């Protein structure tokens, strides 16, 4: 699935999941526009790796909650690429700008999350689609658990904002379908080198242990490379019949019911132990 000759723009691609997506698209031959919020050196490192993969691109600063900055981003994209084939919305605000439980959160923090997701995505797709020809690809990185559940209380603003973005995915999918442009959302679940790493170390360890013991059936958390693979697949010509979907790329974590813990089912064990137990005995 070569993407040679394609121009891609990935917001929030100086680190984590966005970085994994940018490098995978470059590996497939696409030129990649990379955005960062604060860490320019990290973005430069991603661009260096993009070039080592035989591709090219550019870097630019972006505050995803600033609509004027988004306008400048697409002016820069037009100047650098002329046209656009792939747009991936991955950027969000930093945790302190929105992380507060529903009974305490300020309107300022709530607005910050909504601006960086639903409002930003609306403007970004309007601008990106003007640079796209027939068969473009638009993807939004979401967190479906946060948008449809309510248990992670300090995630209320971002969960609400992601829900709005997922709704926009469906509306844009219909609006752009006649041009062969697909619009989808990808929900990675808990992923290494992402928001997880901003939590206290003890919380990170609990999450890794929880998922390793069975809450992710594949026995591990995802990686940025895993999500990059999914994005590359959806950007292929062969994926042109998939649109308007929120796709869970989470190793099966979204399939596990919180009402029936893995321990009660007898498979809350380490992956290696499960594999060993599944292997047929060679003894006679």
One letter per element, helices H and strands E, the order comes to EHEHEHEHEHHEHHEHH
CATH topology: Rossmann fold
CATH C-level: Alpha Beta
Largest sheet: 7 strands, parallel
Helix content: 40-55%
Specify the number of helices. 10
Strand content: 5-15%
Average pLDDT works out at 91
Compute the CA-based radius of gyration.
20 Å
Shape: globular
Walk me through the topology.
Layout: E1 7-10, H1 16-27, E2 31-36, H2 40-52, E3 57-61, H3 67-81, E4 86-89, H4 107-131, E5 137-141, H5 144-148, H6 156-176, E6 182-187, H7 201-215, H8 224-234, E7 246-248, H9 262-265, H10 271-278
Parallel strand pairs: 1-2, 1-4, 2-3, 4-5, 5-6, 6-7
What can you tell me about this protein's structure?
There is one protein chain. A seven-stranded parallel β-sheet has the order 3-2-1-4-5-6-7, sandwiched between helices. Helix 1 packs across helix 8 and helix 3 runs parallel beside helix 4. The mean pLDDT is about 90. The chain is an alpha/beta fold and about 280 residues long. The protein contains ten helices and seven strands.
